[in-house]
Amino acid sequence: MFAFFLSSGLFLGWSLGANDAANVFGTAVGSRMISFRKAAIYCGIFVILGAVISGAGAAKTLGELGAVNAVAGAFVVALAAGATVYWLTMLGYPVSTTQAIVGAIIGWDLFAGALIDVAALEKVILSWFFSPILAALFSALLYKLIAYGMKHVRINMFSLDALTRAGLLFAGIAGAYALGANNIANVVGIFVPISPFSNISFLGLFTLNGAQQLFFIGAIAIAVGTFTYGKKVMLTVGEGISELSPIAALVAVQANALVLFLFASQDLEGFLLNHGLPAFPLVPVSSSQAIVGSVIGIGLLKGGRGIRWRVLGEIVGAWVVTPIAAIFLSFIALFFLQNVFQQKTYIPVEYRITAEAKQRIHEAGIPMAGIEEISGKTYPSAYQFQNALDQHMVLNNTEKNLVLSAAEIDRLVVVNQAANRINDPTITEEQKQAVQQLRGKSFTHRWEMESALAQQSREWKMQPGNKKQNEELKWKLDYIHRLIRSTGQ
Amino acid sequence: MGEGILKRKIGIEKEIDEFLDRVSEAGLLCKQGMDTYLKGDMEVYATYLKNIRDTEHKGDDLRRSLEKDLYEKTLIPESRGDVMELLEDMDALLDRYTGLIWQFEIEHPDICLEFHEDFKELLSHSVESVEADVRSCRAFFKDINSVADHIHKVSFWEKESDKLSTRLQRAIFGRKDLHLSHKMHLRFFVKQIDRIADEAEDVADRLNIYVIKRML
């Protein structure tokens, strides 16, 4: 069964490889500086290295699909996202796989009666604007700078060619590594808690843990995707929108990387803030859309005559279509799987304001007027609970979210083997011990489990002001929650 | 990998330099060859003819090897076509020098003594225009911003060559004591020499476009 569920993740990985490799090697292949074959080989190797070395270390082990609470549901969501990206890859359009996943999850939310993650949807829409505009500005600026520099430097045509080629290869390799590290969780992360793999040691030199083995398989799917279907999207990016000179190709990938680094890196933000420096505002940017913006930026700098506006229009259309198609596809597929194949695609989440929940809401300083009307009643879905809240209480969005999370019923039972099944290498021994201490206990709400963990160990406590650490802790808690839920069932 | 790229780069740069050296060398041999012809020393002339033929062969070999490298190693994809054309154009100029020396050997034109200096000067102008082409080419590969410093000299020498060619043809046809066939034969050689400068100017015009295409 595991292999069957995993197949959809691998399909998603394959689609991702076929589409997103264009973000890192598209301009190099399009400008004919690096052959597709060579690009695919380098891309494959470094995607695998990135996924295995840095993917497992990232706190985001579960990836976006972590929001889906049943494996069969995750299977469909990954399949729907993969099919959407596959379809647009066939047509040769660079689209964002993450946005396809967000769309497919919204399809699942609608089907399961869960609340739609409006913030994620907003991010998708904003990134359609932010990514290309920022990247276009950066690439135009960078191109101007390089053009100015070139006027004052004596360089042989062949030396310049060799340098540009090496630069493109280096940028491609670094991009491929990041692609593997950042996306592998989206591809197979959801399957980590149910993975049957155990640690494998290679001649005592290094050990691959269960998650890394799963990531390795996922990364191979990405590499195969690049090899088999990557060329078409690469050529759209590298020569379809506008013909690119080798220097322009290099500038485009650099601008892409720079935009992602400056505007999407929480590490950089943390570093700058820790050193008392002003940080760049974090905005939603997507590499697939930024690379198109980079190419357009250079095209506009040259007067815009070389830009094929029709192709650009089609690409923008494909961006909009991506989440929409994924929503529909996911919803329809879930309907079939649930009703025709009788699979449990979601675990219904009930909401009830219990005495503990009421206490928590009160402690958070939320106005309690109207709460008695809904206390003690069980609501079968978030959607219905939210309607009841709207009818009886006057709350702003933050307050509403807090009430929702306080009232969510989770019926968690920590079984004996739960702690033993933790295979995320980022979870410390002390944290594992804390989970072990909770064995035999049951909780009605998730937050109760989290409070109990925080009481057991300081390492499970949120640290005020430490944004990065808290973010990682949140992901770890998600992982533990999922693990306890799956083992306790 | 890095070493491979470096080696390949140095190899190509060297080959291009060598090829352009051959073009320059052919110009000098052509001048020397014509001087010897005008002196009537046909034995020495034969050695120049052999030297210039060897130079042409070497040039052809280098051009072929360069073209093969450019395509096989997929170097400078954006300018490959232009560089190939440029190399072929320069090779055509080298062939013109060889052709001229051959023509002297085959047709044995009877050049009157009073025209000797003009013929020498005319060839010198043509060779100068090709030399300016060679310098422009070297700049195109090594320092594209300085191409403009050399390329305008091609036009200068081409114009000088045109002026001299017109003056020489007038002088030839002004001679009453020569047969028309003799005059036409001399005119043919004047035209042949002048054409070298004309072609050099055409190469410079094309090079100008290649430079614009490569400018960022």
Protein topology:
The complex is a heterodimer of chains A (489) and B (216).
Chain A: H1 2-30, H2 36-55, H3 71-90, H4 97-112, H5 118-151, H6 157-188, E1 200-202, E2 206-208, H7 210-240, H8 246-264, H9 266-274, H10 287-301, H11 309-339, E3 351-352, H12 355-363, H13 371-374, E4 378-379, H14 382-392, H15 397-407, E5 412-413, H16 429-437, E6 442-443, H17 446-456, H18 467-488
Antiparallel strand pairs in A: 1-2, 3-4, 5-6
Helix pairs in contact in A: 1-2, 1-3, 1-6, 1-7, 1-8, 1-10, 2-6, 2-7, 3-4, 3-11, 4-11, 5-8, 5-10, 6-7, 6-8, 8-10, 12-15
Chain B: H1 2-39, H2 42-72, H3 80-107, H4 116-142, H5 147-174, H6 180-214
Helix pairs in contact in B: 1-2, 1-3, 1-4, 2-3, 3-6, 4-5, 4-6, 5-6
Verbal overview:
The complex is a heterodimer of chains A (489) and B (216). Chain A has 489 residues and is mostly helical. Chain A has helices spanning 2-30, 36-55, 71-90, 97-112, 118-151, 157-188, 210-240, 246-264, 266-274, 287-301, 309-339, 355-363, 371-374, 382-392, 397-407, 429-437, 446-456, 467-488; strands spanning 200-202, 206-208, 351-352, 378-379, 412-413, 442-443. Chain A has three domains: 2-122 and 153-242 and 305-339, no CATH class; 351-405; 412-488, no CATH class. Chain A has a two-stranded antiparallel sheet with strand order 1-2. In chain A, helix 1 packs parallel to helix 3 (71-90) and helix 8 packs across helix 10. The longest helix of chain A has 34 residues, at 118-151. The two termini of chain A are 17 Å apart. Chain B has one domain (2-214): Methane Monooxygenase Hydroxylase, Chain G, domain 1 (Up-down Bundle), CATH 1.20.58. Helix content of chain B is 87%, strand content 0%. Chain B is built from six helices and no strands. In chain B, helix 1 (2-39) runs antiparallel to helix 4 (116-142) and helix 4 (116-142) packs antiparallel against helix 5.
